[in-house]
Amino acid sequence: MKRNAFTLVELIFVIVIIGVLAALAVPQFRQLQENAQLTNIVKYYTDILTSSKSAYLNEVELNNVAMADVNLTQLYDFRGNGWVISNANDTATYTVSIGGANQTFVVGYNNAGSITMTTTISGAVAATRARLAEKLTVKTGMIFTGANPDVNATVLPLTE
Questions:
Q1: Range of the domain at 128
Q2: pTM of the full structure
């Protein structure tokens, strides 16, 4: 007897295999996406730490710009989606959704020679917050402890 089609059992078996593969792939994709977004925060943090002092010295010492006249956009080039620069150019905020909640990275310049970088991790899932805090601590040295363990503030003095 010659068959021209698949049996119902064969079709159900293929659908089950596709469902199992999808169930395994979706969580991995979400974790890869979260890691990529977290990597952006780590990159911005380390770039600002390494480049701001030299940019500040260039502006103040070489270009003779007064300390109070330096703004944040002269110290770092904020590019990419997610950045919002304040009108006075003294605060830049990077917001990204990780783990179903908005995570923020705020960089502020106080016109007195220091930059403050504040990272706030939030969300309804405690495990996600803990994982984000651990990765940021390992990669950047941020410490999320104290009265509000979801917030880290780092002050970077630009003058020696």
A1: 8-157
A2: 0.70
